[in-house]
Specification:
About 35% of the residues lie in helices and about 20% in strands. Strands 3-2-1-7-8-9 form a six-stranded parallel beta sheet, with helices on both faces. α6 (about 105-110) links the parallel β2 and β3 (about 115). By secondary structure, it is α/β, with parallel strands linked by helices. The structure holds adenosine-5-diphosphoribose. Adenosine-5-diphosphoribose binds near residues 28, 185, 190, 215 and 228. Adenosine-5-diphosphoribose (APR) binds near residues 22, 23, 36, 210 and 213.
């Protein structure tokens, strides 16, 4: 693989860095993405499995699908891309991860801080009153209930639902403040999250996209690198490390 031409010497260890990630960063850990050819939404209907209406109509179906995903995720381990972010975070101490992923692999890799825009699949909350619950115990998708009598559901953001206001505003604030913004493994289609790379670009950050495929954002990126995150990120890290450490 040829060198990736990064203007790394424009930055220093004081530069502020944001890593914005999507399902693609976990692909090399064996977790399915959503919109690739073999992604979840090519096989399943998101309106049935990832919407409040779908849960209302058939909670068992939804709980079982999430239990199956959770089981798979529990066996998965962070990959070279998550670990490269840990390396970056030692170099750039003022940095954070903003993820659309619900799998918790960033935490497992030691990435911190991590803003989980779309929630966390290992947690639940009440479908009726919204009270957050603890870590999900059942691996079979059994129903459990809140003290208010409501049914517990995965603590993730479904289609048609709003993101947590404070998490979203922290994400936009960090994006506006950063000097380097990575957008990694996301199709950049789902808003408001997909606005973040544009916000970074508009507020002067150097924006690097890492994705095997072109996305709607690719043309707006300062640098758009085609390839798998687990292969490309360690390479980009080495370039920054050599130039500024
Ligand atoms: N490395 C980097 N990127 C990859 C890799 C890889 N190894 N494999 C696939 N990709 C890319 C794909 O090319 C695609 O652009 O990851 C992207 C995955 O896109 P989506 O499946 O749309 O996932 P994401 O962008 O995270 O979706 C956003 O949509 O359904 C909702 O809530 C769900 O958080 C999710 C949101």
């Amino acid at each position: 693989m040829k060198d990736i031409n990064i203007p790394a010497s424009r930055f220093s260890t004081n530069s502020r860095v944001v890593f914005f990630t999507g399902a693609g960063i976990s692909a090399e850990s064996g977790i399915s993405t959503f919109r690739d050819i073999d992604g979840y939404w090519s096989k399943y209907d998101p309106t049935k499995l990832a919407s409040p209406q779908g849960f209302d109509e058939d909670p068992d179906l939804v709980l079982q699908w999430y239990a199956a995903r959770r089981k798979k995720i529990k066996k998965a381990r962070p990959n070279k891309a998550h670990l490269a972010i840990s390396d970056f975070q030692k170099l750039f101490t003022d940095s954070m991860v903003i993820t659309q992923n619900v799998d918790g692999l960033h935490w497992q890799a030691g990435n911190a801080p991590v803003l989980e825009l779309h929630g966390n699949i290992h947690r639940e909350k009440c479908f009726t009153c919204g009270r957050p619950g603890s870590e999900v115990a059942s691996t079979k998708g059994a129903k459990s209930y809140c003290t208010c009598g409501g049914l517990m559901r995965p603590n993730v953001v479904w289609f048609g639902e709003s993101l947590a206001m404070s998490t979203l505003s922290d994400a936009f604030e960090a994006t506006r403040q950063c000097d380097i913004f990575f957008t990694i493994g996301t199709s950049a289609l789902i808003y408001p999250a997909a606005q973040l790379p544009y916000e970074a670009r508009n507020t002067g950050a150097f924006v690097i996209e890492v994705n095997p495929e072109e996305t709607p954002f690719s043309e707006a990126a300062d640098l758009s690198v085609r390839g798998k995150a687990g292969e490309i990120l360690p390479k980009i890290f080495r370039e920054f490390n050599a130039a500024i450490s």
